Amino acid sequence: MNVRRRLIPAALASALGLGALTACSSDSAASGNTDKFDVVASFYPMAFLAEQIGGDHANVTSLTEPGQEPHDLEISTQQRAQLEEADAALYLKGLQPAVDEAVGQTGIKTKIDAATLTHLEDHGTGGHTHEGEEGHAEEGHSEEEEYGRDPHVWLDPVKYAEIAQGVGKAFEKADPDHAADYKKNTEALVTKLKGLDGDFENGLKTTKSKVFFTNHAAFGYLAERYGLTQEAISGVDPDSEPSGARVRELQQEAKADGVTTVFYETLVSDKTAKTLARDANLKTDVLDPIEGITDKSRGDDYFQVMEANLKALQKALGAK
Fold first, then answer.
1. Could you give the 3-state DSSP secondary structure of residue 46?
2. DSSP string spanning 71-87?
3. For the whole prediction, is pTM greater than 0.70?
């Protein structure tokens, strides 16, 4: 197993006459080290992949706590130490700048950037790709929008499967003793994701409307995959506030496109979504970007919440 060797505890070393362990040792038996393949994931969608692929051989921890909005994450000193002790880091560059910086500064051997395992696109605030669109560095836009790349790829089962395949290969290379199991687990996960893709494709094939309103622009890949149009109240950053002109535009579009529902999510405030819904005489419902699983989530894992999202979209869009 190509996992760094763990040192025996200092007390036992002393008892055996081996001398005290120094704090500067690169193999320090600090909290979090295990005899398994230790993976530190940036947030839930990455941790879910690591758990599904790593199986019994991996010890997976997440830098983002359940219920914490991942875009706002700041890395603590303890978490930096945790990264240094890990065998691999799995993250999605562009979503959490603090994680990008912390991973870049560590000496960890296996750094897996999910953004390199699939193609990221620019979705702006809507549901379509706008190649070569300018103006992303305007005042008030997030760093993600300045780069013009939407990081929410896990909400497209096809792209998530592409990432899973890349993660599986990285695990095989980093821990070759268990490569066969990682390969088997990856294949099983990809099969499930293909099934989920089929559920969405069939479930959204015939609907009265193709337009849905969301709190922030997390569903661009999903919309593009299944022939829908996402219109977001905010941009890619869930904390940004919409302008009055944007709100009026959405009210007009709701009438024109037969929009019935404004979707909000579990980890950020629903105030703006509910205000728009009230003013435009629309319903509200949850469409979960699955950035974390909490007791408010409609399911216990990625697949359950995605199926709940499908049902919510079918209801809002008038699936036949």
1. helix
2. GG----HHHHHHHHH-S
3. yes
